[in-house]
Structures are given as C-alpha cells and as structure tokens.
Specification:
It contains three helices and eleven strands; from the N terminus they run ααβββαββββββββ. The protein is an alpha+beta fold and 276 residues long. The protein has one domain: Lipocalin (Beta Barrel), CATH 2.40.128.
C-alpha cells in the first residue's frame, strides 16, 4: 500500500510541476457561457463547478452525436485534452496486464533519473505520450495535423493521401505517419522514430525499431478514444496495446507556451523515475 501511495504522490508532484509552468492567471472563458456547437453539432454542457487546473477548468461534459464532414468522413477537428499516458503507460492497460519489457529495456528503465526526462526538459513527447496541455486536430483532404500547445509548440503531420512509408526514413521524434479512415476512426501507422523520447514520466524506453498503430475514434461529440498498439522487438518481447481518452474543449484555443524560455523544473527533479 505504501508503494502505491508513493507512486501516486510522485505522479501528482510531476503533474503539478509541469502545470506550474503555465500561469494560473491566464484563464479562458468557459464554454458554458458560449454554448456554441463545434462542427455543427449540439452541445449540452454541464454546469462548470470544478476548480480551475492551471489556466483552464476541468473539461465540461459535452454531449452530442459524432460529427462528420460533407463527404461523410468523421470530423475529428477541435481542441482536445488527454488521449495518452503522462505518468505511466501501464495506466492504459487492462488490470493485471504486464508490460512485456525485454531484460535490456528493463535495465534502462530502472536506471533512468527523473531529471533526464526529455519532456521535462522541453523536448517533444513522441508517441504515445501526451503532455498535460490541450492539443488541436486539423483535417485536410491530404493531411491530418496534431498541433500541441505544450513544450515547444510541436506538431505531427499524418499523410492521408495514399502514400507509403519511405524505405529508409530519417529517425525523428514523431516518426513518419500515414493514415486512413475506417468508419468513424482514423488509423495511423507510424515508423521512423528516434530512440530519444520516453513513453511516460516513469521512463519506459523504446528503440528505433518502434512501430505504432493508433486508432482515433470519435465515439460522440465530446469524446475521442485513442487506442495505440506498440510494436518494438528491440525493447518489448511482444506487441501490446494501451487505451486512453481525450475530451473536447469547446470554444477554446491553443495558447502560446514556449517551455524553453523559463524551464526551471528539471533541475528540481531528484532520484530515479516514479516507479523505480
């Protein structure tokens, strides 16, 4: 029980440390006051009684049917919050499931220091990690873009024009992503990652062999379910899948937030990562 309590405290401190980089006074008007339906849908927003977290309130509950574009394609556009691991990737797995790390990966995992977390040092989160800040999906007929408010204002581009992966992609933080639609889901296949980012604050590693298959499913107006299959024979003995959800943030916009300008968190992180 004590170990679980320690883990919870460490995760809470990490989240608070990251959120502290955002000015609490910079609040955004609540969507409750606006009540404007995104993507032509209807909005039923519950009364916002939750306290502010950082500069934003806890997401209001948004109800309505799944929106679609004129051609029938699911409309994923909007500002979202959540959708991936922050503290520990295992939180997205079924109860009792074990992350199948290889001995070499487990050795790296147990040696990692909190201060070395790339995300805490203002570097991109990679996939499937999500920073605790909002992000936006922008759709075009040929591309889908993920725009991230957190850290370095980074972005992902997903090609939905039918192209294939390059034979020898240059390793990058977000890899090379191609996608297609299946019903109300966008399926994203990505290779070509570098091995620099961590999957979570706990420090789960990966290699350049990493291959992810993500499924973004808009189950209704306000909910985006994100399923990610992780395939990396260099760090994990078999593929495994995690599931997280994101909530729509109606009538919000991304704010400029440049982590590098005043990064003071990492120097205060001492010791091994949260679960070691």
């Amino acid at each position: 029980m004590k170990k679980r309590f320690d883990i919870a405290v460490i995760a809470l401190v990490a989240a608070a440390s990251l959120c502290a980089q955002t000015t609490a006074a910079q609040t955004t008007p609540s969507a409750v006051q606006n009540k404007v339906a995104p993507a032509g849908g209807s909005v039923d927003v519950a009364t916002a009684t939750a306290p502010a977290v950082g500069r934003r309130r806890v997401p209001e509950r948004v109800k309505g049917p799944t929106p679609h574009l004129a051609d029938g394609t699911v409309d994923l556009s909007g500002v979202w919050n959540g959708g991936g691991p922050i503290g520990d990737i295992a939180q997205g797995m079924p109860k009792g499931a074990v992350i199948p790390m290889t001995p070499a990966a487990e050795k790296i995992f147990k040696s990692r220091q909190s201060k070395d977390d790339p995300e805490a040092n203002c570097l991109p989160t990679g996939v499937p990690r999500i920073a605790p800040y909002p992000w936006r999906i922008v759709q075009t007929p040929t591309h889908v873009f993920f725009l991230f408010e957190g850290n370095i204002h980074s972005f992902r581009q997903i090609f939905v024009d039918g192209r294939k992966h390059p034979d020898d992609p240059d390793p990058t933080w977000y890899g090379h992503s191609i996608g297609h639609y299946e019903g109300d889901s966008l399926v994203v296949d990505t290779i070509g990652y570098n091995d620099k980012f961590w999957f979570d604050f706990a420090g789960h590693p990966h290699t350049e062999q990493l291959h992810t298959i993500e499924r973004y499913s808009r189950k209704d107006l306000g909910t985006l379910d994100v399923e990610t299959q992780i395939i990396d024979p260099g760090a994990y003995s078999k593929p495994f899948t995690i599931n997280f959800s994101a909530n729509l943030r109606p009538k919000e916009e991304l704010m400029e937030y440049i982590c590098q300008e005043n990064q003071v968190d990492a120097q205060h992180l001492v010791g091994f990562t949260g679960l070691n």
